[in-house]
Amino acid sequence: MARVPAKLKRHLPASFLGPSAGVYPLAAGVGSRHTRVALFSHDTQGLGHVRRNSLVAGAIVADQPDTDVLLIAGAPEVAALPLPPRTEVVTIPTLHKAPTGAYSARVLSTSLDDVLAMREAVVDAALSTFAPDLLIVDKVARGVGGELDRPLSHVRAQHGTSTVLGLRDVLDGVDQTRREWALTRTDEAIADLYDDVWVYGDPAIFDPAVAYGWPAATSSKVRYTGYLARGRSAVVGLSRANGAPTAEDVDSPFVLCLVGGGQDGAALARAFAGASFPRGHVGVLITGPYMDRGVLGELVASASRRPDLVVLEFVADVPAFVERAAATVSMAGYNSVCELLPVGRPALLLPRTVPRVEQALRAEQLRKAGLVDVLGADPDPSNIGGWLSTALTRPRRAHAAVDLDGLARLPRLAAELIAEAPGTARTEAGHAGSV
User: What stretches of 331-405 show up as alpha helix (H) in DSSP?
Assistant: First the structure.
């Protein structure tokens, strides 16, 4: 039986601590003429949104190394993520989203209206001072409760900033998405506040403009980038971070389990930890930083009882683990799928269906394209073990059927918008902006 190396068995799950919400100091040289890109993510749950924005920023900086980046996020944990060079972080007061969809302050003892007012003020001040040439907002066009309406209007009027709404391939079920967009007046916001809509996917797999029935005014602004899949490690320069283990630390062949941030991955994690692994293989389970601490303790205890299981809470370079894994079992979040598709090795998706059906829709479209296997039933050790026992004999999947080159395409799209922005030729004094 394969055994986990002692150095990994000794690796206890690392604390995933971020700074308190607040504004980080902007880099020196605010009045310089370097290109500036800002990115915003509302981040009420998990790290998917801010991870996507950090990859987008990394792709732009890799192409134009003198670009300054301001990453604005509602997740203080962003400080622990690998970030591209020349990137500063602003964290805004955090929000909690209940299963019902209702928002509240995550930390502060204050009303939702007050915390949204604080978030709006911080974003407005940061953007007015930074004066970006390009602003990219992830998923929620108006932010939470319209918190971006005034900052977007100000930065466009004051600095001629070009603005982009960045969307993952699948947002949610068709009816739910249409209701949410109507309620939040998203189409009106796109018409008034955005120059482009970047869809980080391939319409041959899922075309949101068609599926969700976007009006012509919205569809005319859509640019399909392809999935942000190939080159994820390279654009951010991932490496061993905060002493986290790397794929090279596993000196036995292994199968892998990914549960995203971990906040809703307990069932899959438990099932994988109880499954049988192929002969000669270790099972590596990456729980993510948001796994319930009690569940995490159970999993660590399971790993202490079986020599072929290792549980890791945080790794810096998930794509490197995926590349080395003989097969991977995973949830079907956007980032997880983008990490799986380029390697072409056996992949089994177990999508969540609550509170959104986004993952189930994505998994089914990828299954239809012949890119993954999907297990729709509740995670079960025997089902996972059975799939793993046959997966290793399969040939590598071809990935020619899906566009995975979004990270290579983004710098050109960004450059085009920056060149068109009326504020591009602003003076140094104008570039400094005002608060």
Answer: 334-340, 358-368, 381-391
Q: Which domains does the chain have, with CATH numbers?
A: 6-14+236-391 (3.40.50.2000), 31-229+405-425 (3.40.50.2000)
Find the largest Cα–Cα distance for the chain. 67
Q: Collect the ranges in the chain with pLDDT lower than 50.
A: 4-31, 239-240, 424-435
What pLDDT, in 10s, does the model give residues 259-269? Answer: 988 888 999 99
* pLDDT tens, residue by residue, 83-142: 888 999 999 998 887 766 678 888 888 999 999 999 999 999 999 999 999 999 999 999
Strands (E), 56-172: 68-73, 87-91, 95-97, 103-105, 134-138, 162-168
Burial of 313 (0-12, 13-18, 19+ CB in 10 A): buried
Under 8 Å between Cβ of 104 and 74: no
Q: Give residue 317's pLDDT.
A: 84
| 164, 194 Cβ separation under 8 angstroms | yes
**Sequence-distant (≥ 6) Cβ neighbours of residue 262 within 8 angstroms:** 269, 287, 288, 289, 290, 291, 292, 296, 313
Task: Using CB atoms within 10 Å of the CB of residue 359, give its burial: 0 to 12 exposed, 13 to 18 middle, 19+ buried.
Answer: buried
CA pair distance 223, 221, nearest whole angstrom: 7
**Token pair for residue 279?**
């002969």
What is d(CA 297, CA 435) in angstroms, rounded to the nearest whole number? 47
- Name the residue type at position 351: P
Looking at residue 341, the DSSP 8-state letter turns out to be G
What pLDDT is stored for residue 434 in this prediction? 31
What is the per-residue pLDDT across 377-392, written as a single tens digit (0 to 9) for each?
789 999 999 999 999 9
